[in-house]
Amino acid sequence: MSGGERTDAGHLCPAAVLMPQSLRVDDVVAAARRRVADGPPPVGAVARIGLAARSAAVGVALRHCLDHDFRGRAALARAIVELVRGEGPAAVRMLARYLSDPESDPVTRHPVHGGAASWQHLSTAIALAALDPAHRESAETAYAEAGDFDAVVFAREHAHAGPQERAQVISRMRRAAGAAPEHTVTDAVRVLLELGTADQVLAALRGAVERGVFPCRVVTALHEADPRLVPALADSELRALAAAPERYLVHRPDPADPALFKPEHAVSTRVKACGPSHRDRAVDVLREIARDGRHGNEIRWRAAFELGLLDAAEREREQDLLTGEGVTDPAAPRPQEQWDAADLARVQPAVAALWQRIEQQLAERFPDFPVEYGPPATLAEIAEVERELGFRLPVEFAASCLVHRHFHFPDLVTGMPDQVDVAWLPRYRCADIGSVVDHGPQDPNAAIRVDYFPREGWILLKADEGGTINALDLDPGPGGRYGQVIALDHEMPQGVAAAGWLSLLQRFTAALEANRYVLKPEGYLDLRRP
């Protein structure tokens, strides 16, 4: 519920009146403190009435906020005890009802905050103990029975109750570090850093590492942590980097999304700040990742790049090794086909002749299958398209556009795609570029690159309306050819449809002249089956 929103009954939320800008628990409690402290000391009957009115309003608002969110209940309960103790009994009755009848709890029905039955029980029990110490034993039982994740989420709230609860939290966090999943372990260690001793933190880290779980980024600034903890924390971060480089390696700068490049967040940068010995260990880990052939090209090149955050010479050395090994850099500009007027002049006659034969065959054999042929494009238009794409069009495709800038069949033609107007090609790039990433090893002879896709160099030949469509591949794999025609199904590569545009026209022409096409009753041209 945001500021100014209304309750289910249509009334303005009491907390919104108290704190219209924000309904975050911390902000509401701070506003409540200001409201209670506002005004002169309560001297005289009138002043006492004013203070009572302010306190009553604050009490209603805080009690109402107990119905907003599970996670803020304990903090709100403590604020009620501190600021408006007279509101405590009503709050206790309300939360006791929610504990005995969870379905009566409004938060369980909230579309954002509700739905977690375990959170409802634990948060309510802890809040009740904050309001009335008589409920502390119930809260301790609820915390003992909670799952590891829930125990971590509500650890700080439960520890507020007193030394006994704090000890229970510390014991539980140490146990979670030895058994819970990685994300829970990291949060458990953070709690121990706040509530426990250095020895307890070290023991938790050792237990996690022994079972192959490596808490990472436990603290904001690694080099500012307790010096007794820095070696273990740095070791855990480097182990995490080695175990999951796709998750912890820094992203290289991308002009299209510069916000992704955050060198200060890199594990290697954090560890380097802890001293030369830690820096040397980070270099070793990154070097091992870059040289591990089980990783994909992108991971290996990212590791080599991150080495440069520690030592520019190390980066250059590792990049040279990758290049010498034939590991292509997915982020490097791809070699593009270069052609000039002389190359175009050599190709154009063959392409024009193929189009003449295609048009003749279609007109003679399938007069009821009218094809729309566009007029020629100009070299200036082709150059502008190339500028917008950031890629050169293959010379044979450019030569084809100088004959027909587009062509459209009235229905499907097996083995031959439509082509949109050449000027529209920049609009027909795949959506969600790079939405699929493959961190595994890449086939050094693959015709199509799939280290990530869709790719910027896949230029659709018509609008993607679902199903299989064709695209020019201007960013081929090591075993592919610039300008090859590939098949995509919902932007997933299905294979190479033709080695190039000229090959596609030649194959279509040969099939037409060999009378291999038949017009189906459904209205499309299909190849005769042998």
Helix content: 40-55%
Number of discrete domains: 3
Question: Approximately what portion of the residues adopt beta-strand conformation?
Answer: 5-15%
Strand line-up of the largest beta sheet: 5-6-7-8
Q: What's the CATH architecture of the largest domain?
A: 3-Layer(aba) Sandwich
**CATH topology grouping of the largest domain:** SMI1/KNR4-like
According to DSSP, the number of beta strands is 10
CATH top level of the largest domain is: Alpha Beta
How does the overall form come out from the CA principal axes? elongated
Looking at CATH, the homologous superfamily of the largest domain is SMI1/KNR4-like
Largest sheet, in brief, is: 4 strands, antiparallel
- Poorly predicted residue ranges: 1-10, 40-49
First and last CA, distance = 68 Å
Instruction: Give the overall average pLDDT.
Output: 88
By DSSP (H or I, 4+ residues per run), the number of helices equals 22
Gyration radius, in Å:
34 Å
What structural category characterises the helix and strand content? alpha+beta
Describe the protein in words.
β5 (458-460) and β6 form a beta hairpin. The chain is built from 22 helices and ten strands. The protein is α+β, with helices and mostly antiparallel strands and 530 residues long. It folds into three domains: 14-146, no CATH class; 216-332, no CATH class; 341-527, SMI1/KNR4-like, CATH 3.40.1580.10. The strands form four sheets. A four-stranded antiparallel β-sheet has the order 5-6-7-8. It has a two-stranded antiparallel ribbon with strand order 1-2. Strands 3-4 form a two-stranded antiparallel ribbon.
